[in-house]
Amino acid sequence: MSLNWSAKDHKNMNQPAATGQKRSRNDAGNKATVVLGAQWGDEGKGKVVDLLATDADVVCRCQGGNNAGHTVVVDGKEYDFHLLPSGIINSKSISLIGNGVVIHLPGLFEEGDKNEKKGLKGWEKRLIVSDRAHIVFDFHQVVDGLQETERQAQEGKNIGTTKKGIGPAYSSKASRTGLRVCDLLGDFKDFSMKFKNLVHQFQSMYPALTVDEYAERLRPMVRDGVYYMYEALHGSPKKILVEGANAALLDIDFGTYPFVTSSNCTVGGACTGLGIPPLNIGDVFGVSKAYTTRVGIGSHVGLFFSHYILDVLDEIKVGVAYKLNGKRIPHFPANMDVLHKVEVEYETFPGWKTDTSAARKWNDLPAKAQNYIRFIENHIGVPIKWVGVGKSRECMIQMF
């Protein structure tokens, strides 16, 4: 595409006169609501996104790849999403895969087709893919698996990666050799040359690597994602929802490194992965489980094995502080060797030993469950918006 644009054209545009006044936060445009995982993933983000997406105009993915997994239950049907935003279920909203996401194209279309058989109609017409998003190739996945095998052989331990090629794809991006969606849809000879150069870097270590191409099916979905978000933020009033993948303790900077994913899963990832200014970030919802689990390998302080159903426990222990060498520490240790040595200080609460799955209002919950929730709310200093008691959106108790 050619843009014949000059400074003279810019000068002649009808633009509002500069006022010399700082634009207030209230004048910054539409706000994006962000849903993030607050633990190690599998907290139920998909259900919260599904709840908020029912009246959203735009639902976005900002980071990660098909290493994420969100399950949404609607009318008894389970839809599984890995790359597609969960909000694509809403036929009235647009779903955007942002520039911060790394996309395995065969996986994207396999996921869409699988959910279409379950009843997800017209998803391709509602999906926008940022032209700046990087591509995960099949050889990235092969490399991911081989690297895990090598780590196990050399160090006796691996990271617990999903082997979806996410780390190697972000590595290609960081080393500035990665290929983006815009490259695939541009001059194919140029793309082929770049691809051969990229593959050559890996073939010396991992030969016989191949690639799948989905250019023509992808082409109608591709747009400049940054400009699309600019229009969404500064155009007519819109409800914009950002669906985070993975979780805070898997964040490349703030998680239990090196047992983390390869992207920023905290709120900053919404800004960099979509081109949203911090000024346009509105409500941020962190989703937590009533009990903590993690997938894969890595430190899990306070781990214990049980049926993991709070309704049946005699008592519930809540970790409220860490101790190192007998002294409380005010932070979450960055060093995994140190983290392994901490002791957890607990508050103990009596279990309610009552099925809560039918509760739909706060007063439907047992008093002991209410006390448990209020304690967590007061201890972390963050208001709790919803309490989930089941898989579907109807199983959410709204607190305020």
Written account of the structure:
By secondary structure, the chain is an alpha/beta fold. Helices cover 28% and strands 18% of the residues. It has helices at 7-12, 45-53, 105-117, 138-155, 166-174, 181-184, 188-203, 215-218, 225-234, 268-274, 336-339, 367-380, and strands at residues 32-37, 58-61, 70-74, 77-81, 94-97, 102-103, 127-130, 134-135, 222-223, 240-243, 281-287, 315-324, 327-329, 343-350, 386-388, 396-398. Strands 9-7-5-2-10-1-11 form a 7-stranded parallel sheet, sandwiched between helices. It has a 3-stranded antiparallel sheet with strand order 13-12-14. Helix 4 packs across helix 5. The model is unreliable at 1-19 and 208-212 (pLDDT under 50).
Task: Give a short overview.
The chain has 400 residues and is of the alpha/beta class.
Write the layout of secondary structure elements.
Layout: H1 7-12, E1 32-37, H2 45-53, E2 58-61, E3 70-74, E4 77-81, E5 94-97, E6 102-103, H3 105-117, E7 127-130, E8 134-135, H4 138-155, H5 166-174, H6 181-184, H7 188-203, H8 215-218, E9 222-223, H9 225-234, E10 240-243, H10 268-274, E11 281-287, E12 315-324, E13 327-329, H11 336-339, E14 343-350, H12 367-380, E15 386-388, E16 396-398
Parallel strand pairs: 1-10, 1-11, 2-5, 2-10, 5-7, 6-8, 7-9
Antiparallel strand pairs: 3-4, 12-13, 12-14, 15-16
Helix pairs in contact: 4-5
